[in-house]
């Protein structure tokens, strides 16, 4: 079996699927969000770069903390793209050697190329800040980029290593694979210390310090690498490999689902004991369908974090736009309230498609009424959060009152006109 050809065949199929997702993604909602987010970012970045020195906008040590956190965020983006499928544990059972050597080698090349591009973007966005902060040539920036790419390569190599069954003599025995200590050490603590060293050393020592750190990172890559001779003595841990790829695909689909209705999306249920304890007294005297909608919303691993992220990003953008014209703040608030309701609608569709839900002796009118009640409460909570962000950024009482009245009108329009119309369309195509 040609494992290399198999990987690139799956890679091409995945890119075709990504193109389909992009066609769903670039709809009216995402384009509006992208325009507002991009405009806010450009205005804020332009305002930052108009200062003569970076110290006039904040202490250099605070900017160094921001740079470290930003680069650590970039290191978390990108993972090993293996494209394993659940059936592989059966059909590729006797091909462990080819998978370990050829398949993983191709996967590592593609993953490193994608991750290096991400690191280049994250460092590129910091170039003006780094240039004003250090008043020197671009040597430190080049050293940062080189270290981040090499260290990200080590993370990908280690992720490949964990998908194999290897004797513990080659493992670092200070922690168990996939443990919290391992994630903190390799993804946060070690890169944070190395990045801080590159940022604080004198200019004359930057290349020497970076060379030492690169040697350490390359040695770690060698420690967890799989040679051709070793590939004959190891076996695939198919359970970990398939689980890893399933989680990666779920993250990708969750991103697309933030702005579009992704077909055939796998639903994952997660218990949230703390939130369940909080909502239990609220739903104790509620109807059956209201409790069902509430529990499905809380326990669905994709929808609940998605709504939370949308509300958080909307509040941050509203606060950043505090010096912008009032109409832009209103448009941003209306857009995110609409997006929250738009992303909440698939809960109604998926619930109505469930056979057991249809067997519940509750009329369709009551089901729709309970869903609209929960959607209305969610809109009110989101609007109150946006109002707090607006109050923190606005000083004029008249502007606050105008924004408050406008948000109330937006909620009335969405809950009285938009939601009933969409729910009728759903029932018509049911």
From TrEMBL:
Keywords: Membrane, Transmembrane, Transmembrane helix. The chain crosses the membrane at residues 21-43, 63-84, 110-131, 137-159, 180-199, 205-224, 303-321, 327-348, 374-394, 400-423. The keyword Membrane applies. InterPro entries: EcsB_ABC (IPR010288). GO terms for cellular component: membrane. This is ABC transporter permease. It comes from Leuconostoc fallax.
């Amino acid at each position: 079996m040609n494992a290399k050809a198999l990987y690139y065949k799956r890679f091409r199929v995945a890119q075709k699927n990504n193109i389909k997702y992009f066609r769903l993604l670039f709809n009216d909602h995402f384009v509006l969000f992208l325009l507002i987010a991009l405009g806010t970012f450009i205005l804020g970045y332009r305002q930052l770069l108009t200062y003569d020195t970076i110290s006039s906008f904040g202490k250099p040590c605070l900017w160094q903390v921001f740079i470290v956190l930003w680069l650590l965020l970039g290191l978390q983006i990108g993972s090993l793209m293996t494209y394993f499928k659940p059936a592989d544990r059966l059909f590729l059972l006797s091909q462990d050697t080819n998978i370990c050597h050829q398949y993983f080698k191709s996967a590592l090349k593609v993953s490193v190329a994608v991750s290096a591009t991400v690191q280049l973007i994250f460092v590129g966005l910091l170039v003006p800040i780094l240039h004003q902060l250090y008043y020197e040539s671009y040597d430190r920036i080049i050293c940062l980029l080189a270290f981040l790419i090499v260290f990200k390569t080590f993370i990908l190599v280690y992720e490949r290593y964990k998908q194999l069954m290897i004797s513990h003599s080659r493992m670092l025995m200070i922690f168990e694979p996939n443990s919290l200590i391992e994630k903190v050490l390799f993804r946060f603590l070690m890169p944070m210390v190395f990045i801080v060293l590159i940022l604080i050393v004198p200019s004359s020592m930057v290349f020497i310090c970076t060379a030492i750190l690169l040697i350490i990172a390359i040695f770690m890559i060698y420690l967890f690498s799989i040679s051709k001779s070793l590939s004959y003595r190891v076996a695939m841990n198919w359970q970990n490999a398939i689980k890893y790829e399933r989680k990666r695909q779920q993250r990708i689909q969750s991103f697309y689902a933030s702005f579009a209705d992704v077909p055939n999306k796998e639903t994952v249920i997660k218990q949230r004991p703390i939130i369940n304890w909080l909502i239990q007294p609220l739903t104790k005297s509620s109807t059956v369908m209201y409790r069902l909608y509430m529990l499905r919303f809380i326990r669905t691993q994709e929808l609940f974090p998605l709504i939370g992220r949308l509300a958080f990003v909307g509040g941050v953008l509203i606060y950043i736009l505090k010096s912008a014209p009032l109409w832009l703040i209103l448009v941003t608030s209306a857009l995110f309230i609409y997006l929250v309701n738009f992303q909440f609608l698939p809960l109604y569709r998926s619930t109505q498609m469930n056979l057991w839900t249809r067997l519940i002796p509750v009329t369709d009118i009551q089901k729709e009424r309970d869903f609209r009640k929960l959607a209305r409460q969610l809109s009110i909570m989101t609007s109150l959060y946006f109002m707090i962000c607006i109050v923190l950024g606005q000083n004029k009482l008249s502007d606050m009152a105008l924004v408050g009245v406008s948000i109330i009108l937006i909620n009335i329009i969405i809950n009285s006109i938009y939601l009933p119309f969409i729910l009728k369309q759903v029932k018509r195509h049911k």
